[in-house]
Amino acid sequence: MDLEGRKYHIIEQVMLLTESEIDKVEVVLKNASDSLIEQELTARALEAEEDIKEGKVFTIEEAEAKLNQRFGV
Fold first, then answer.
1. Chain centre to alpha carbon of residue 18
2. How far is CA 61 from each of CA 43, 54, 67, rounded to the nearest angstrom?
3. pLDDT given at position 73
4. Which residues contact 57 (CB under 8 A, 6 or more apart)?
5. Is there a contact between 32 and 40 (Cβ–Cβ < 8 Å)?
6. For a disulfide at 73, which of 5, 28, 48, 68, Cβ 3.0-4.6 Å?
7. Which residues of 27-61 are buried (b: 16+ CB within 10 A; e: fewer)?
8. CB–CB of 22/30 below 8 Å?
9. Are 66 and 60 a contacting pair, CB within 8 Å?
10. How much is the pTM?
11. C-beta neighbour count of 1 within 10 angstroms
């Protein structure tokens, strides 16, 4: 089954759920989302710590200049 078909199949199944079942699904989705966010933030923090150890840092002025350039200011 292709992705589009899978999506429709899931939608059909969700339409048949009771309110308590939907509550359970919401909890699972929220926990999965929170876990992914935590993993991403942890990975970024570890990368930042490594960059600092390697001396890959910017002064405040350099960081501001990069942001201004990125946003066209």
1. 29
2. 26, 20, 10
3. 84
4. 51
5. no
6. 68
7. eeeeeeeeeeeeeeeeeeeeeeeeeeeeeeeeeee
8. no
9. no
10. 0.50
11. 8
Q: Which amino acid is residue 25, in one-letter code?
A: V
Those residues with Cβ within 8 angstroms of residue 73's Cβ, 6 or more apart along the chain or in another chain: 67
Give me 21's structure tokens: 């079942």
- Tens place of pLDDT for every residue, the chain, 73 residues? 899 999 999 999 999 999 999 999 999 988 888 988 999 999 999 999 999 999 999 899 999 999 999 998 8
Residue type, 62: E
- Both tokens of 66, joined, read 């990069």
In one-letter notation, the amino acid at residue 58 is F
